Amino acid sequence: MLAISIGKKLVRAVAVLLVVTFVTFCMMFGNADGIAKGVLGLDAQPSDVQKEVVKLGLDQPLLVQYGKWLLGVVTGNLGHSFFTGQSVNEALATRVPVTFSLVIVTLILTMLLSVVIGVTSAIYGGWIDRCVQFLTVLGAAVPAFIIGVALVFAFAVAIPLFPATGYVPLTQDPSGWSKSIALPVLALLIGSVAGAASQIRGAVLDVQGRDFVRTLRARGIRETPLLFRHVLRSASGPGLTALSLQTIALLGGAVFVEQIYALPGIGQLANTAAQQGDVPIVMGIVLVTIVFVLIVNLLGDVANAALNPKSRVR
Amino acid sequence: MRSNRRRALLALSIPISAAIALSGCTSGPSSSPASTAKETLTLGMTADITGWDPSNQPAYQNYPMEAIWDTLIRCDANGKPTPGLATSWKISDDQRTLSATLRTGQKFSDGTPADSAAVKATFDYAANSGAGSARYKGLKVEAPDATHVSITWPTANPLIVLNTCNVAITTPKVLATKSFTTPVGSGPYTLDKSGTTQGSVYSFSKNNAYWDAKDYPYKKLVVKVITSDTAVLNALKTGQIDGSLITTSTVNQAKSSAGVKIYTLKGPETTRLLITDHLGKVIPALGNVDVRRAMNMVFDKQAIADKLYLGNAAPASQIFKPGSDAYIAGMKDPYPYDVAKAKALMKQAGYEKGFTLTIPVIANTGVDQLMPYVTQQLGLINIKVEQKALSGPNMYNDLLGGKYPVPLWPLGNYGESLQDIYDYVLQGGIWNVEHQPDATVDGLWKTITMTSGDARTKAEQQINTYITDQAWFVPMAYPNSFYAYSSKITVQPTSDYAGLNPQLQNFK
Q1: Of B38, B58, B51, nearest to B501 (Cα)?
Q2: Which of A12, A300, B208, B302 is the most exposed place for a label (fewest CB within 10 A)?
Q3: pTM of this prediction?
Q4: Cβ within 8 Å, pair A43-B230
């Protein structure tokens, strides 16, 4: 049953991948002359521009270009940047770890903190709940890039505890890596926790009010096992959905945060490539991003199915 | 309940502890100060290069180009030639041929000699395949022996020196295979691939065998791509970089930062409207000189310099750089700010009711910030400005393609004003987007090609007088640029004719 459910989700995921990449390709299509001139320089002669258009394969029909790209995806060759000649695989290999470091670390911390805060707020109520609600609204209202600017000023410039810019790869120096992402992660974390904690609080409150919980309590089940075995399991669906949505928001937030901290992630690369019309790079980034989001959603669905058997029959 | 609270608090403390551990906030930043004296120079670059094709390097913040490649000759701040790979040169009387003698013993980073064969291959590539090949089309290169080369243009070329000093020399093999993933040059530095991440940071090691190695005192050069103003300033303040161009929006903060100095580049650009439709073929009104003059008279240049540029600009009534050959010192502004007179001129021209003008705008170029003022002022003489936002891969194609005959742009003005004339005034000039012919300009350019010295300067100034009289442009201001740098290093005045940023050899 679970296997069939996962199989269906995988098929849907592939369909989403194809639709999104095709739509993106369509949006990038039709700028052949501009791209070729960008590659050659503004002084380029029209005849040279035309030669470059042919060389880059931009003279071919949309479906042919898309088909070639898709074939490349299947064979693991995502092409080369029109502008730098760098292999897309290589470009992504250096950039993706940066952005995904931010997103994954923030997501893990979001999961831990938002569950604790949301559950605590829902269980205890009172002034704790009111404080949490206030802080989550505040956290969700202030954009990540503003928090990022404030953090860099406070903890990198005024009090130099962390680096103001730059990224140290994890494989090079784990301690340096953690310091280089501390402030960017914190900038993303505040809004992310605020959003997810609020959703989890709502889900827990909803489940706690249900008849089966009252029945279990009446039967003498203690609060702790009631909470962990029954309430959280039933609330896991909305909670995991909230976390999946946070992933998408984090990817968007990471683009701005990368600018503030000069992190060499895919956000910066995507911005430049989109402006230039560097189709292979843009498509590579879109592919990686979609795959990541789909995997996170799939893992969320699997986790939900594991935690909450009722979701398996849907 | 109490036991549950304790457990809840314990549960809460675990992720918080994890967060603290992961964030490593028990010690200071890992990146050490940017440079030990003469060891490493770390510079910021606000825009990335587009790969390692030597013929397609930016003129602005061209640190990687200057690091990797040498040129046959260098051009000084006034565009005059100084030694490069060539120790001596001669320009023929007909201004078509540059003959050079190369220095011996120079090698590329792959060990092959930097000789006349390499120079020939590079110029041949520039003429046939390179970016900007229009400037080198039709030229012939002869290399009679390893240390002599002559480059001949098809017609007289007053820009023979500037064109030559912009060509970065590389090996015949690189050009034949068009293998541009790893740059090969004979310049003051070589690329250190292990410390380089394309688009983020470029590391270079000093080439001690370079003929001018003493002029580049740093053993290592690191160039970081930092596009955000905020990030640049923060990196400077925390010592992560030794220098970078900054903008007007952050210059005051930089000035007040300890350990940060500012080098002001005076007016490397001229903000202007380019009225390229002098014949009125696209917008008939623009074919009338009174209309163009009226457009000049609705802009208060002093107010633009003081208020829009916050005092970081000088008013401009000529497009040329003060001190360049075409610039006329002491020329009174022929179009002082006078809205009433402008209205009278429009009435005289028969355009009292005005017309509609579409001006293209590209975000974050400075143009977008000027547009409200330009729109307001032209509105005073009933010229209705419609902004057209350009973006994406075709934006420069559209900007320079002739669709919009009056671009607004802060364009570079050069120490060698011939380049300005070539780019902005001649019919084929890249920024003369309507490419309309003019017999007077053509005649004066012909004089320039056939003369030198005072006669040439006179012809350049005659062009200036003519285009000013005919109001081909609406010059507004010479905005300053700013280079912020650490007090631990020294920055000499910029030594190239574009003057957009200090060159690598200016850092001591």
Answers
A1: B58
A2: B208
A3: 0.87
A4: no
Domain B30-63+187-266+481-508 in CATH 3.40.50.1000? The answer is: no
Ranges for all domains in chain B classified under CATH 3.10.105.10: 269-479
- CB distance B204 to B190 below 8 Å: yes
| Three-class SS state of A278 | coil
A172 contacts A136 by C-beta, under 8 angstroms: no
- ipTM for this prediction: 0.84
DSSP 8-state assignment for residue B493: P
Distance of CA A264 to the CA centre of its chain: 16
For residue B6, pLDDT beyond 60 = no
Q: Which residues pair with B148 in a beta bridge?
A: B101, B145
In A, minimum Cα distance to B29 occurs at A162
Q: What integer pLDDT is reported at residue A25 of this predicted model?
A: 93
Residues 185-204 of B with CB under 8 A from A: 197-201
- The band of B34, judged by pLDDT with boundaries at 50, 70 and 90, is low
Q: How far apart are CA B361 and CA B377, in angstroms?
A: 17
CATH homologous superfamily of B269-479 equals: Dipeptide-binding Protein; Domain 3 (3.10.105.10)
How many angstroms separate the CA of residue A36 from the nearest CA in chain B?
9
CA atoms within 13 A on the CB side of B327: 17
pLDDT (0 to 100) of residue B19: 39
Do residues A250 and A266 lie in contact, with contact meaning Cβ atoms separated by under 8 Å?
no
Which class is domain B70-178? Answer: alpha beta
Q: Which of A84, A115, A285 to mutate to test the interface with B (most CBs of B within 10 A)?
A: A84
Considering chain B, tell me which residue range(s) the CATH 3.90.76.10 domain(s) occupy. 70-178
Residue with tokens 């220098």: B243
Per residue in B392-451, pLDDT (tens digit) is 888 888 999 999 999 999 998 999 999 999 999 999 999 999 999 999 999 999 999 999
Which residue type sits at B273?
A: L
Q: What is the dihedral of CA B202, B206, B211, B212, to 10 degrees?
A: 80
Query: Tokens standing for A54?
Result: 């042919």
Reference A269, options A62, A84, A16; nearest CA is A84
Give B320's DSSP letter.
S
